[in-house]
Design brief:
By secondary structure, the chain is an all-alpha fold. It folds into 4 domains: 180 residues, no CATH class; 111 residues, Topoisomerase I, Chain A, domain 4 (Orthogonal Bundle), CATH 1.10.132; 239 residues, no CATH class; 199 residues, Methane Monooxygenase Hydroxylase, Chain G, domain 1. 75% of the residues lie in helices and 0% in strands. Helix 3 packs antiparallel against helix 4. The longest helix has 36 residues. This is Dilute domain-containing protein.
């Protein structure tokens, strides 16, 4: 009766929920109604079984005859319902060991509740014969129910034959686990037949289409791969649908089995997910292999692979020699159609890996499923060829971007002054039209790109763009190939493409940039200055683009891959040492060439600084007033620097300009310090020097955008401050201040004080500056900085 009360509580709870909860969706209400109907049906069946369980064995015989009659008359649904009622009656006594034969009551009870083995066998054979007829009719509902009837009868019969082995609930499970379920076998045969009927025509059509596409060129291969990709998607979707449908049927028809578990703490052995999905997958594996076979045949084109390798090698030679070859470029134009083939291969891999993940999830197994190994192996074979093709395609597109770069055209005219505008247009017209699939991406790196129109300009004319056009094309292809490899959901493929693309930057791009930098330092630098600045901008933009794109790709890979180990592997490749090494090499190239630029500029800057050497800083009041009205140095110096740095301010990116200004500021500070330590001052001269120094610092700060240059003049500012003191002992007011970060040691302070002609030498000599730990640490840092400056 506890079991009956349990269902009554469910009914009461459902009524309360229906009264109080608002209607949200009709579908939800329908599903609730269906669930309630199922519960009511099972409850009624159970109540009927309770009535029969108190009767004689003849009632069981009558019930079995009814079930047999319903099966013979093709009323399988009613037979299935009666059989569940039969199970409710006999299941409890079957799940306990045989009773003591010495008790009359127990003997009678067992006789009334235990069915006859002969009649069970007769009913089982009737169901088996009817199943053959239903298979021919191909009625799914009837076939599922007859399969359930066979499975249930077989388990009841098996429990009856093995009652002596039953001692507890666990022993029931053990006994049933040894049974080969004929009902399940019948149902899986039907599922396999469905696979044959639904997938067979798909593969036949695909094979026919593939035979019609007999040519082996890239265009034909693309069409064949498109057909394979579409068929694979339809096929795997159909298989997944069949699996889901089969599992839903099984769950619906075995739902009543939970009632046995609630009542008797043990239930019949029902069909598990692996029992249903693996037969369907195994049946479809043959058709899946047919698609993979066609894919492999189409991409294992040795002629295409050789053409790609030769084209990449020839491209590198042309670029290294700064040449153009329009006829040759036109001959390899068809190779860029490989992009479409790679798309279909990546999609095929993605579909396959999603299907494998679906099977793994539905199987409820944490360990890999052996039956999927063959499919995984086929995908790996295809993706191994994909990697080779993708790497060649990336290198080819990479080289094309460099080949048709606008800056490269200008360099070509400088190297070949005899080339006319018309000649250059003819040489580059085919390059501009090749590879139409390479278009400029929408990337942001803190600046805008002005489209150049510099073909045929004389070398001395002004270039109206800050970075060369190749970067947009390069990074468009870079992003595309890595995104495509991530889309494939194949971890090893994605990691391989990421590493190979990194090598292309290191082996192709950086050497090309270095060759351009070397070229700009040959001959007249003023003529090639703008080219040099664009190359520096290209380096910095490359670094910024890499950082931004790698961050975006890392986020995409985390969203795409669900497995944490896969996510870690992709993240390590994208943020690993390879790209870090490229960034460091770019930093090194930038710093080295900016120092070369400083070396060129320093000659002019030294000339602008030279007038300060003719100025006397031992000023009288009248001299100080004259200097205030008509400064003899700083105004002219700033004016000259404005003119000198104007082209750099206009053409350099902000990041590169900042670094250049920092180098210039450091150079100016060193030159001024050397001059100051050779000059003599009074207080007015020190005040005037301090004002000039502030104006220079403020001017240089206006040229920077991110980090100002004040720290470059910290030591010089302290020197000028000391030169403005009223007395020698004023230095003691600042010596022990923690917030005053001294860049001078005691000896240097005395040397600066010694430049004041109005300070007594004995007071300077007797000045006691005791070094504190803070000052000592600062002075050590100053020594290291001075050593680095002397090396530079």
């Amino acid at each position: 009766m506890n079991f009956l009360n349990f269902f009554k509580r469910i009914e009461i709870k459902d009524e309360k929920n229906n009264d109080s909860s608002p209607v949200v969706q009709n579908n939800n209400n329908n599903s609730k109604d269906n669930n309630n109907d199922d519960v009511d049906t099972e409850l009624n069946l159970y109540l009927e079984s309770r009535k029969l369980s108190s009767s004689t064995q003849n009632d069981l015989d009558v019930l079995m005859l009814k079930i047999n009659d319903k099966i013979i008359k093709n009323d399988v649904s009613q037979a299935y319902q009666l059989l569940k009622q039969f199970v409710y009656i006999v299941y409890e006594p079957l799940c306990r060991p045989p009773v003591d034969r010495g008790t009359t009551y127990n003997q009678l009870s067992e006789r009334y509740h235990i069915p006859s083995i002969n009649k069970l066998e007769e009913l089982y054979q009737t169901a088996r014969m009817k199943s053959e007829e239903i298979i021919r009719i191909n009625n799914e509902q009837s076939l599922v129910e007859i399969s359930m009837i066979i499975s249930i009868l077989q388990q009841i019969k098996y429990l009856l034959l093995n009652r002596t082995r039953i001692s507890s609930e666990n022993s029931v499970v053990t006994v049933l686990s040894q049974l080969e379920d004929d009902g399940l076998t019948l149902f899986t045969q039907y599922l396999r037949k469905q696979v044959l009927e639904s997938l067979g025509p798909m593969i036949q059509d695909l094979i026919k289409l593939n035979q019609q596409l007999s040519a082996k060129d890239i265009k034909t291969n693309c069409k064949s791969l498109e057909n394979c990709c579409q068929t694979l998607k339809k096929l795997l979707n159909q298989v997944a649908h069949n699996i889901t449908h089969a599992m839903e049927l099984s769950n619906d028809h075995w739902k009543w089995n939970d009632l046995l578990l609630q009542k008797y703490k043990v239930q019949l052995k029902q069909w598990n997910s692996p029992d249903l999905l693996m037969p369907i997958h195994n049946q479809s594996a043959f058709y899946i292999d047919q698609i993979y076979k066609i894919l492999q045949e189409r991409i294992q084109d040795k002629r295409m692979i050789n053409d790609l390798s030769d084209a990449c090698f020839q491209f590198e030679t042309i670029i290294q020699n700064h040449q153009y070859s329009p006829q040759w470029l036109d001959s390899i134009k068809h190779l860029f159609s490989l992009d479409e083939m790679l798309n279909y291969l990546a999609i095929s891999s993605e579909i396959s890996n999603k299907y494998i993940r679906f099977i793994q999830d539905q199987s409820e197994h944490t360990k890999p499923i052996p039956e999927l190994n063959n499919m995984k192996g086929k995908i790996e074979e295809i993706m191994t060829i994909y990697v080779e093709l993708e790497v060649n395609y990336f290198q080819l597109s990479f080289s094309l971007a460099i080949y048709r770069d606008n800056l490269r055209k200008i360099v070509y005219t400088l190297k070949n002054p005899q080339i006319t505008t018309q000649d250059l247009l003819q040489l580059t017209s085919l390059a501009s039209g090749t590879g139409n699939n390479i278009t400029s991406p929408k990337l942001t790196a803190g600046h805008t790109i002005t489209s150049p129109n510099s073909i045929g300009q004389p070398p001395g004319s002004r270039i109206n763009f800050k970075i060369s056009s190749m970067l947009d094309d390069i990074f468009f292809v870079f992003r595309k190939v890595i995104q495509r490899s991530i889309q494939s959901l194949n971890t090893s493929t994605a990691c391989s493409i990421i590493n190979q693309s990194c090598s292309t930057f290191e082996l192709n791009f950086l050497p090309f940039i270095e060759s351009l930098l070397q070229f700009t330092f040959q001959g007249d630098f003023d003529e090639k200055r703008d080219i040099f600045l664009i190359i520096l901008n290209d380096l910095k933009t490359t670094q910024l683009y890499l950082q931004k794109i790698l961050e975006q790709l890392t986020e995409q890979s985390i969203q795409k891959f669900k497995n944490e180990n896969d996510q870690k592997m992709i993240s390590i490749c994208l943020g690993g040492d390879n790209f870090t090494s490229i960034s460091k090499k770019i930093d090194q190239l930038l710093h080295t060439n900016l120092e070369k630029l400083l070396k060129i500029l320093s000659t002019v800057i030294n000339q602008y600084l030279w007038p300060i050497r003719r100025i006397s800083f031992e000023l009288k009041d009248t001299d100080f007033e004259i200097y205030e009205i008509n400064d003899p140095f700083v105004l002219d110096f700033i004016s000259n620097m404005v003119q000198l740095l104007e082209p750099y301010k206009k053409n350099l990116l902000n990041q590169n300009l900042d670094e250049l200004i920092h180098l210039i500021a450091n150079h100016i500070a060193i030159i001024l310090e050397e001059h100051i330590m050779q000059s003599f001052f009074n207080q007015l001269g020190g005040i005037h020097l301090s004002k000039d120094l502030r104006k220079i610092i403020e001017f240089l700060c206006t040229l920077t955008t991110e980090q100002n240059v004040r720290h470059k003049f910290t030591k010089l500012t302290q020197i000028s401050h000391i030169l403005t003191f009223d007395q020698v002992n004023d230095v003691m007011d600042y010596w022990d201040l923690k917030e005053y970060n001294w860049k001078l040691n005691p000896l240097q302070i005395k040397q600066v004080l010694g430049r004041r002609t109005d300070f007594p030498k004995n007071l300077i000599h007797n000045l006691k500056l005791i070094e504190t730990p803070v000052n000592n640490n600062n002075n050590n840092n100053n020594v290291q900085q001075q050593q680095q400056q002397s090396k530079r």
